[in-house]
Amino acid sequence: MTSVPSPEPPIPPENSLPGPFITQHTALILLTALVIGLIVPGLTFLNGTPTAGAVVAGALSAEPCVHL
């Protein structure tokens, strides 16, 4: 039985660029958290809640999106 040597993988160039800073999935999750974090406190403030309470509501509503 004879074996055929496998071809060697190509060598990447030395000056190749690195990958993206963040992936598209990460950008989408962060953008979703940002939108939720801006809409919820705005609606909470318009409902009559003090500003500090609206900010806390926004932070608590956006936080679970980041931990997906």
Task: Give structural attributes.
68 residues, mainly alpha, 2 helices, rod-shaped
Describe, in plain words, how this protein is organized in 3D:
With 68 residues, this protein is mainly alpha-helical. It has 2 helices and no strands. Helices cover 57% and strands 0% of the residues. Helix 1 (24-46) packs antiparallel against helix 2. The radius of gyration is 24 Å and the shape is rod-shaped. The relative contact order is 0.13.
- pLDDT under 50 segments (min length 5)? none
Shape: rod-shaped
Which range best describes the helical content: under 10%, 10-25%, 25-40%, 40-55%, 55-70% or over 70%? 55-70%
- For the terminal residues, how far apart are their CA atoms? 52 Å
Order of helices and strands: HH
Indicate the multimeric state: single chain
Radius of gyration: 24 Å
Q: What would the average pLDDT be, to the nearest integer? A: 82
Proportion of beta-strand residues? under 5%
Main pleated-sheet profile: none
Q: How many individual helices?
A: 2
Strand tally is: 0
The class by helix and strand makeup works out as mainly alpha
